[in-house]
Amino acid sequence: MTPLKELMNGEEMNDPIQVVKHELSYEVRYGASGVPYIEKRWSVYKGSQRIQAALKLGYTHIEGVIINVWRI
User: Fold this and answer.
1) Residue 32 and residue 1: Cα distance in Å, rounded?
2) 20-52 burial, b for 16+ CB within 10 Å, e for fewer?
3) Distance from C-alpha of 72 to C-alpha of 5, rounded to nearest angstrom
4) pLDDT tens digits, residue range 25-50?
5) What is the domain range of residue 14?
6) Which CATH number does the domain housing residue 46 bear?
7) In a domain, 10, yes or no
8) How many distinct helices (H) and strands (E) make up the chain?
């Protein structure tokens, strides 16, 4: 993702990012070509461009909220 131009030009981040906390399975699963699948504990539901802008601007922390949805 490319960072939002507005944020790179100095506008404030008004909304927090939204992240989903996943339940990890201890059963080994396989992805493409039989490569073991590495599960993620967290994923970004909304706000990935804000994360990219924050990284490029040198931020160490940004606001986020944990959301749990049944299906994404």
Assistant:
1) 23
2) beeeeeeeeeeeeeeeeeeeeeeeebebebbbb
3) 27
4) 888 888 888 898 888 888 899 888 88
5) 1-21+38-72
6) 3.90.1530
7) yes
8) 2, 3
